[in-house]
Design a protein that fits this description.
Chain B: Residues 109-153, 733-760, 779-804 are annotated as: Disordered. Chain B: InterPro entries: DUF5682, LolB. The complex is a heterodimer of chains A (374) and B (804). With 374 residues, chain A is α/β, with parallel strands linked by helices. Chain A has helices at 2-6, 15-18, 20-29, 42-50, 68-79, 94-106, 121-124, 130-136, 147-154, 168-171, 173-179, 216-219, 233-250, 259-275, 294-311, 318-329, 333-348, 355-365, and strands spanning 52-53, 59-60, 83-88, 112-114, 126-128, 143-145, 157-161, 182-185, 190-193, 199-205, 222-226. Chain B is built from 35 helices and ten strands. Chain B has a four-stranded parallel β-sheet, sandwiched between helices. A three-stranded antiparallel β-sheet of chain B has the order 4-3-7, covered by helices on one side. Classes of the chains: A alpha/beta (374), B alpha/beta (804).
Chain lengths: 374, 804
């Protein structure tokens, strides 16, 4: 609202605005059956997320790079009357996917509840305009509808971010909404019944298990899709270098030449530790307690670039990323540093062309020279 | 239609094909059924109707003189071939196998022949899983195998992939499922076969995928057998069930002479054939180098489910998950079925297939997690079905191989228990030992090692007793391979995959060595390396290391095996080096004692490994152990001693360390512990190094009276372990300590010693020397002759214990 009134370009437009052209081209080309109040058919929604070329030559850019299966299951779930729960470690594009799904299905990705420890029932259901309430008593006019209620009224997709951050008793407000598709308003002895087309996408971080675990009653209302980390090293290197490039520009860091080798190295280390196996698939390694998501790899490289630009010669060197990697890997000082050392000694030390990095990492790992004979 | 034989082109192990075959046979009621398979099996095909026979089973053909040369034709309940065989037997219609005889396909071939390995397996063509060639044979069993490149092979030989690609499907398996398997029962049971035949004809005409020479030979043989049958029963009464790929070739008109010419001069070998039990897991064989069919359980379900296959499947899944304690309600089942069907619709498929149901089960029943899903895949999609074969089936080759070896090694299976002593230096005995160990690996406990710890390395004692049920065990082991060696190796590999502890794997590795199974060793070692990498129990790693190093160094395996062993041992040692300091902190007395044992054995093992880099790292680890305050004193002492013995501790460094450990601020009990560890390697050091003795002596003298009784047991333990001679020498040295004599001289070169040799004292040392070196010690008189004041033998270079 404010962005429109000031007329300034917004920092980040909504998905439905940023990709309005693609959406309309898809809608024009889409001749498959659409569920009630959907802007596109499920097939077209999947195409919107995964990318493709339409018969008229319009290129749809891929929004999500990952297994087709995941997007198909997600879209199909929205077409049934089950809600969709997107799970994943931080940095796996849960929110991104949820936003684009809502934009493609309903043309509106703004009906959103941000889950926090302080999210109240009012934020999910409805609040009151107290001036009206005092003046006229409880009435429809005095009600302030929450995003979920509006979505139900209009048959749209509502979004709940970080569902597991919301206290358990507040979460359970969703049960009636999801199972009976109705939102009771006991104050008015009334209810809001969801219009066809209503559904809900929730995201949750599965590293936060146990924070506010969903009750099984609520869980049963969701189909769960786990968003994985990038499948192939090349895809991840691509994602990391693209984001690093963008971030570097906004931080006004000078572009580092030949950074791609170090990026590849960071991605390799992260992937190997995350997957518990070396890329050649020959040796298993222990995994540390940290997430080591793609997002963390991006921040390690960005940090390294800043180090190289401000304190080094502008070229990204192993030493610039070694400390960052160690910081990302060693979250639990006791267990993780063992994992890291073991990885250094059994994997990195013998790898061709990695001796610089091995030395840098070892220096970073301990002030003491390790294993040197007297 | 009546003037042409009924050619039923199928996809091997395709349940849809099986249904269609049965419908077509019911409709046409042929007088003879020809099935793709080895003609040698004609005689035993009637066993298929035996009530004791239950699929999955396999036809196993093997060369008589070489049980290792063998091939399997697996058949599941949902295999079209099995369905055709059972239909024919139930209707008293003769069954004939028409493929190239195993006598030819198993004969040693020119090695240059492409893809020689896969000739015997009927899975080689038509089936989307075309790279399954030979995969049905236990890996390593087919000694005739030549490593055909599977990728190249698929390109050349997977016609369905080409068809599916033409239809715009990326997955040929799914395409076949959609077009044939999921066909909702049309009116004409033969129509799909006609369509497949047409497609195959086009494909064979168009593509370069014309098969290879062997295919031509096989098809020539099929044509000849078909012609015979047509002559005998009339064209309209013959039905042929074969891979879809062959149908056009059978339809083709060729002269008998041309076909005969192709078959002339083929190498031949004497073969035997029998039925063996099979399992769904082996049909699946997701491991190994080939994939048969990945979802035998699902196919079995598709074939046996009367109707609503998806709903029935989801109910099965729910039942399984409930049994495992996952709460699954009927609502879950309903939602899963709906999701699967909606997914199928979105993907443009006529019916939900395995992919859709798995996706739905994951999203609805498993909360998106793969762990419970793996269970579903393992138990249901693959399945645990074990086939059975009637007793009247001919003996399995494994039994024959065992009998042959028993005869050759003169080891009679006898019921009464008897002892057997083997001298491993003799070839025959070594071979016997290997056989017995292999049988142990196979779970045929004919012999048990007689527990004699006194035996030397070349001696082995066994107790032998042959129980009748061992024959059953041997028969059961038939699925592992056709010879004792290959079966034991296959079993060892499977055990390695399933093993859940490091100890089990090291035992297995040891058994493999003893059984001479070098080929199984890499798998076992791979599993061992993986397990070691994930094992956080350093004590376990350290315990596994010595045996491994010994095997690597002294093991009598083939050279390929020891390299692998050494590599794994190195990895293990590295991990111990990294993890040991952390594992040594915060231990109680018992824990420290156990860990001391591990440190000692690791030290010995790393010395055996004899690699500089590793030794340096180990020294680094010892250094950290010796310096870390949180490590129990006995371990620190032990580490310090190792460093000293290795000569990597500089002299003043050693003094400093000892002074530090024995300084007054250290509680006496701890210092005593340190001394125990330090002196555990023997007390000779104290006899050699008087400075050291002086340090310890000084400390001991400074222990307060009230603490002395506390440290006494520890000290007694330390010194009590010395040999009597050493103990006495130390005692003598201490008795003449400086405090007791001259009152200490400022110029004394070493604490505890005067500045010159004292002849009286030298005399006093002589009894000890005599004791050490024997009464005829030649230096007896010479020692007396040494002029007293001319030499200053410093204790360090006065080698009391080392006569020149």
């Amino acid at each position: 609202m404010t962005a429109e009134t000031t007329g300034q370009p917004v920092l980040r437009p909504h998905a439905e605005d940023a990709f309005a052209e693609e959406l309309s081209a898809l809608a024009a080309a889409d001749d498959r059956p659409r569920p009630a109040r959907w802007n596109l058919s499920p097939w077209a929604v999947a195409t919107y997320l995964l990318g493709g070329t339409l018969p008229d030559g319009t290129v749809i850019t891929p929004k999500y790079v990952g297994p087709r299966r995941i997007v198909e299951v997600a879209v199909t779930t929205l077409a049934t009357d089950r809600a969709l729960l997107l799970l994943g470690v931080p940095g796996t594009a849960k929110t991104w996917v949820s936003e684009h799904l809502a934009a493609a299905v309903s043309g509106d990705s703004t009906l959103i509840v941000q889950g926090t420890a302080g999210t109240s029932e009012e934020a999910i259901r409805y609040g009151w305009n107290y001036a009206q309430l005092l003046a006229k008593g409880p009435s429809r006019e005095a009600m302030v509808a929450g995003p979920v209620m509006r979505a139900m009224n209009d048959g749209m997709i509502a979004r709940v971010e970080e569902l597991t951050r919301i206290p358990a008793d507040v979460q359970d407000t969703l049960i009636t909404i999801l199972s009976e598709k109705t939102l009771p308003i006991p104050e008015l002895n009334d209810e809001v019944q969801a219009v066809r087309g209503f559904n809900l996408i929730a995201t949750a971080n599965n590293r936060d298990k146990g924070v506010n675990e969903l009750s099984s009653a609520l869980r049963r209302r969701f189909n769960t899709v786990v968003l994985p980390l990038p499948a192939s090293p090349d895809a991840e290197v691509e994602i990391v270098s693209r984001r690093v490039d963008q971030l570097g520009r906004s931080l006004q860091l000078p572009a580092a030449p030949d950074a791609i080798d170090e990026i590849r190295r960071v991605v390799t280390v992260f992937r190997e530790l995350r997957d518990g196996v070396t890329t050649d698939g020959r040796t298993k390694v222990k995994s540390p307690s940290g997430t080591l998501s793609t997002a963390e790899a991006i921040s390690v490289v960005t940090n390294g670039l800043a180090l190289a630009a401000h304190f080094g010669d502008g070229v990204l060197r192993p030493a610039d990323v070694a400390a960052g990697i160690q910081g990302a890997v060693v979250r639990d000082p006791a267990a993780d540093s063992l994992v890291w050392q073991e990885y250094l000694e059994t994997v990195v030390r013998e790898r061709d062309g990695w001796s610089d990095f091995y030395r840098a990492a070892r220096d970073a790992a301990s002030g003491r020279p390790y294993g040197a004979a007297a | 239609m009546t003037d042409r034989p009924l050619l039923l082109g199928v996809r091997h192990h395709g349940p849809g094909s099986a249904r269609s075959v049965r419908a077509a046979l019911e409709a046409h009621r042929p007088a003879v059924v020809l099935v793709e398979g080895p003609p040698e099996a004609d005689d035993i095909v009637s066993l298929a109707a035996d009530p004791a026979m239950s699929p999955p089973v396999a036809l196993l053909a093997h060369a008589v003189n070489d049980s290792g040369r063998s091939a399997f034709w697996p058949l599941a309940a949902f295999s079209p071939e099995w369905v055709a065989i059972r239909w024919a037997l139930d209707h008293d219609v003769p069954v004939r196998f028409v493929d190239l005889p195993a006598a030819h396909s198993l004969a040693p071939r020119d090695e240059a022949a492409p893809g020689a390995a896969d000739a015997p397996a009927p899975e080689s063509e038509g089936a989307p899983a075309a790279d399954a060639d030979g995969a049905e044979e236990p890996a390593g069993n087919d000694t005739a195998a030549d490593p055909a490149d599977p990728a190249d092979h698929r390109l050349r030989r997977d016609p369905l992939a080409a068809l599916a690609a033409a239809a715009g499907h990326d997955d040929p398996e799914r395409w076949w499922e959609d077009v044939v398997e999921h066909r909702a029962g049309g009116d004409d049971p033969v129509a799909p076969f006609a369509a497949v035949e047409e497609a195959m004809t086009e494909l064979r005409a168009a593509g370069p995928a014309t098969g290879d020479d062997r295919d031509l030979v096989r098809e020539a043989h099929m044509r000849l057998r078909l012609r015979e049958a047509v002559k005998e029963f009339g064209a309209g009464s013959v039905a042929v069930v074969c891979g879809a790929w062959h149908v056009p070739a059978l339809r083709e008109r060729r002269t008998v002479a041309a076909d005969r010419a192709l078959l002339r001069g083929l190498p031949k070998v004497r073969t035997e054939i029998t039925w063996v039990p099979w399992t769904h897991r082996r049909l699946g064989r997701a491991h190994g180098y080939g994939a048969g069919i990945e979802s035998p359980g699902w196919y079995g379900h598709l074939y046996s489910a009367a109707d609503r296959p998806v709903a029935r499947w989801m109910t099965k899944v729910a039942g399984l998950l409930r049994d495992e304690g996952v709460p699954i309600s009927s609502a879950h089942v309903i939602e899963a079925v709906r999701l699967a069907e909606t997914l199928a619709a979105m993907r443009g498929r006529p019916l939900a297939g395995l992919g859709e149901t798995i996706d739905a089960v994951r999203a609805v029943m498993c909360d998106g997690a793969d762990v419970p899903l793996d269970l579903v895949v393992d138990r249901l999609v693959v399945g645990d079905v074990l086939g059975e074969v009637p007793d009247s089936a001919p003996a399995v080759p494994l039994q024959r191989d065992l009998t042959a070896q028993q005869r050759r090694l003169r080891l009679k299976p006898e019921a009464e228990e008897r002892a057997l002593d083997l001298d491993l230096r003799k070839d025959n005995d070594a071979a016997r030992s290997r056989l017995l160990y292999r049988l142990r690996l196979l779970g045929v406990p004919w012999a048990t090692p007689a527990g004699g710890t006194s035996t030397g390395t070349f001696r082995e004692s066994w107790r032998l007793a042959w129980e009748p049920e061992l024959a059953v065990r041997v028969a059961e082991s038939g699925i592992w391979g056709t010879t004792v060696e290959s079966a034991a190796a296959a079993r060892a590999r499977a055990d390695a995959d399933a093993a859940d502890s490091l100890a089990a794997l090291t035992t297995l590795a040891e058994l493999c060595l003893l059984a001479g199974l070098g080929e199984a060793l890499p798998t076992v070692m791979g599993a061992l390396a993986d397990r070691a990498a994930l094992d956080t129990d350093v004590a376990g790693l350290a315990a596994a290391l010595p045996a491994l190093v010994r095997s690597a160094r002294y093991g009598d395996v083939r050279s390929t095996g020891t390299e692998e062993l050494t590599r794994v041992a190195h990895g293990l040692a590295e991990r111990v080096c990294v993890g040991l300091p952390a594992a040594c902190t915060g231990l109680d007395d018992d824990g420290a004692a156990a860990m001391r044992h591990h440190v000692e054995s690791t030290h010995a093992a790393i010395a055996l490994l004899d690699e500089d880099g590793l030794r340096d790292r180990w020294r680094g680890t010892l250094r950290r152990l010796a310096r870390r305050d949180t490590v129990p004193a006995v371990l620190r002492g032990r580490a310090a001693r190792f460093l000293l013995d290795e000569g990597v501790l500089a002299e003043d460094e050693a003094d400093r360390l000892i002074g530090l450990e024995l300084s007054p601020a250290v509680p006496p009990a701890r210092a005593a512990g340190w001394i125990e560890g330090f002196l555990a390697g023997g007390g000779l050091l104290l006899v050699h190094d008087e400075r050291l003795l002086g340090l310890i002596d000084a400390w001991l003298a400074a222990v307060p009276a009230d603490s002395f009784t506390d440290v006494l047991p520890l000290l007694r333990r330390s010194f009590g372990s010395f040999e009597p001679g050493v103990r006495r020498s130390v005692g003598e040295l201490v008795r003449r300590s400086p405090g007791a004599e001259t009152g200490g001289s400022a110029t004394a070169p070493t604490p505890g010693f005067g500045d010159r040799t004292d002849p009286e004292r030298a005399d006093a040392a002589l009894p000890v020397l005599r004791l050490l070196l024997g009464p005829e010690f030649p230096g007896h008189d010479a020692a007396r002759a040494v002029p007293p004041a001319t030499e200053h033998p410093s204790p360090a270079d006065d080698p009391i214990g080392a006569p020149a």
